[in-house]
Design a protein that fits this description.
Blueprint: H1 2-27, H2 34-41, H3 55-78, H4 84-101, H5 103-111, H6 118-144, H7 153-165, H8 167-170, H9 179-192
Helix pairs in contact: 1-2, 1-3, 1-5, 3-4, 3-5, 3-6, 4-5, 4-6, 4-9, 6-7
Length: 197
């Protein structure tokens, strides 16, 4: 019986996080009220406090889940024995698929960190920096092996992240390209550029 209750609680919490993330993405964190979230869940606003302590704690948990889920997949790839080119390819595919699969959570992570108080921002920015460091490590590794151009590694890392992160703003399921094709197009731009000569 306890296991059933725990599963229901987990499911309800996942639903709460998903609904809140969607509202934060569409309306913005500050414009979304607890009443809005409760309405999405079809419960009374006061009932939300059985699940969370505040709207801010909800935002923190959404962000934490988003970046940690991404890190769990990317960290072993970045630290693996694969070639830097294979690592970059794998990471870009993971990132593209994650943004397409969890657009609300990752958009909130990318855009709402400024809505947190400074002490909470620090925790999220540290996770973001760790993710960027993993990608920068791959870039530096590729440069050391003569596989990537000798450009500034942080600039290259920011350019890669800018390209894949912006996907949330224009990707629509059922468009002209599959996620794998989008990732491959990104990789072509990253590794070969637009100029043919």
């Amino acid at each position: 019986m306890l296991e059933v209750v725990q599963r229901e609680e987990i499911t309800r919490r996942d639903e709460l996080l998903a609904k809140a993330a969607h509202l934060f993405r569409v309306k913005g964190y500050h414009a979304t009220t607890m009443k809005d979230i409760a309405a999405e869940l079809d419960i009374l606003p006061g009932s939300l406090y059985h699940h969370i302590s505040s709207k801010e704690s909800l935002l923190v948990e959404i962000m934490q889940r988003g970046i940690e889920a991404l890190m769990e997949q990317v960290r072993p790839v970045a630290l693996s024995k694969q070639s830097p080119i294979a690592k970059l390819r794998h990471i870009v595919h993971i990132h593209v698929e994650a943004i397409a699969k969890y657009p609300d959570i990752l958009t909130v992570f990318l855009h709402e960190v400024k809505s947190l108080p400074p002490e909470k921002q620090g925790q999220q920015l540290q996770l973001r920096d760790e993710y960027e460091h993993l990608l920068k490590h791959v870039v530096e590794e590729g440069q050391a092996q003569g596989l990537f151009r000798p450009m500034h590694p942080r600039m290259a890392t920011n350019a890669i992240l800018g390209m894949v992160n912006w996907l949330y703003s224009w990707y629509r399921p059922g468009g002209g390209l599959t996620l794998a094709q989008i990732a491959d197009e990104f990789l072509t731009l990253m590794t070969q550029g637009l100029v043919t000569t």
